[in-house]
Design goal:
Helices cover 53% and strands 20% of the residues. The chain is α+β, with helices and mostly antiparallel strands and 417 residues long. It has three domains: 195 residues, no CATH class; 101 residues, ACT domain (Alpha-Beta Plaits, 2-Layer Sandwich); 77 residues, ACT domain (Alpha-Beta Plaits).
Length: 417
């Protein structure tokens, strides 16, 4: 038994390149399968996505990365192998070796990964998963994800790379990278594996390049309006707008709490020099009038121009129950008409708007407009209608210029498509 084990352990030493390719391909494919089945809990495996990860493991991690870490780094830093063989005490006394260690880590993490690793990953994924691949699209996706990808990479790989270059012999570098990469591949699969979704699998139609997810879960997880739930309370809508000042939220919240009011849904934002408040408050019926009067008459809150109105409950029989919920997330370079375009689409689909939020953000010097919608419908769609809905929203990518159009359809658990 010991002889067989000894022969097995000699494989990575005698055949480092072949071993690196095999182990890198296997672990990258396995990591994506693990994420799909355990983390994302998919019923069926997206084999095209898995093929993208396996191809990346074979071509890049096993081939190019081996060439970089072993022969190239071996020539660039001829003392690296000797430094790795020293004891920790000897390493700490070896100034030249420590500099070599730092140089290897810097080149790997600040040059190799940003300039080569991620561009290759996104390009391979683009060509494996898309029917009409484009290197430009792959690099644009990488550029948009750069601010998230690099910090996530460094949290795992900087300490792992220091350990690898400081302690592992040259033949052991790829196996060590493979072991660490098992964790990183799971992170990368969870972060970027679903960026290009599986429309054929879920909706049975043509793949369009948007991100589409069919969510089979109770609609109670989608709708959470307390106006429809707690019938023992009075429900009040409070709005306010006034000059921005520190402490507004605290003062309003304290006044509501004094009358046993419960703030459930709220939106508060500073726009220019003004501060805007919108909130829903559930309060005992006998205390409603007192709370509203206290908010309006408080001299400290007078600059906010507080207004309050009652919210009526949905009465049974007057409103059709929702059978489907749709969440839409869009991101694109800011320009006029983006909100109007998607609003028109939602109206054409006969969807009722439950919640809308919009925001502006800077991403690599580009100002992006972000839209999040929650919509509902009293009718549930069949497979063809769901696919048509997805295609209609995906058209916004070209019509309006959105970089991201993410559509999530929420259905009851027992719905079948």
């Amino acid at each position: 038994m010991s002889g067989a084990w000894r022969r097995i352990t000699q494989v990575p030493i005698q055949y480092p390149f072949a071993f690196g390719i095999c182990i890198s391909t296997f672990k990258t494919s396995f990591s994506d399968l693990l994420v799909q089945k355990v983390v994302e809990k998919r019923e069926t495996v997206d084999w095209r996505r898995n093929a993208a990860f396996a191809s990346f493991g074979f071509f890049y991690l096993g081939g190019i990365q081996y060439a970089l870490y072993v022969p190239i780094f071996g020539r660039m830093f001829p003392n690296a192998a000797g430094f790795a063989a020293k004891s920790i005490r000897e390493k700490l006394k070896d100034g030249k070796g420590l500099f070599t260690l730092g140089a290897q880590v810097f080149i790997d993490q600040c040059v190799h990964h940003p300039i080569l690793y991620f561009p290759v990953f996104y390009t391979i994924k683009e060509f494996v998963m898309k029917p009409e691949p484009s290197i430009t699209n792959a690099l644009t996706t990488y550029r948009n994800n750069f601010s998230e990808d690099i910090p996530a990479l460094w949290k795992i790989w900087i300490p792992a790379t220091i350990f690898n270059f400081a302690f592992m012999p040259m033949w052991g570098r790829i196996p060590t990278v493979a072991a660490t990469s098992m964790v990183w591949s799971c992170v990368l699969s969870a972060m970027r594996g679903g960026d290009i979704a599986h429309a054929e699998e879920l909706a049975g139609g043509e793949f369009t390049g948007g991100n589409f997810t069919l969510v089979r879960e109770g609609l109670s997880d989608f709708f959470s309006s307390p106006v429809d739930v707690d019938k023992t309370q009075s429900h009040v809508y409070i709005s306010a707008a006034g000059p921005d000042r520190v402490g507004w939220v605290s003062k309003v919240a304290e006044k509501v709490a004094d009358w046993d009011g419960n703030i459930t849904h709220s939106k508060m934002v500073r726009l220019g020099h003004d501060f805007i408040i919108m909130m829903h408050v559930a309060v005992p019926p006998e205390k409603r009038a007192g709370m509203v009067k206290a908010l309006r008459k408080d001299p400290e809150l007078k600059p906010l121009n507080i207004r309050a109105s009652s919210l009526s409950r949905r009465e049974t029989g007057r409103h059709k129950a929702a059978n489907m919920g749709v969440r839409i997330h869009c991101v694109g370079e800011d320009k006029p008409g983006m909100l109007a375009a998607i609003s028109k689409k939602i109206s054409e689909e006969n969807l009722s708007v439950d919640n809308i939020t919009t925001d502006l953000r800077m991403n690599n010097g580009k100002r992006e407009f972000v839209i999040n919608w929650d919509c509902s419908a009293s009718h549930a769609l069949n497979k063809d209608e769901v696919n048509a809905l997805f295609n209609d929203f995906s058209d916004l990518k070209t019509e309006v210029g959105f970089d991201v159009v993410d559509v999530r359809v929420h259905l009851e658990k027992d719905e079948e498509l």
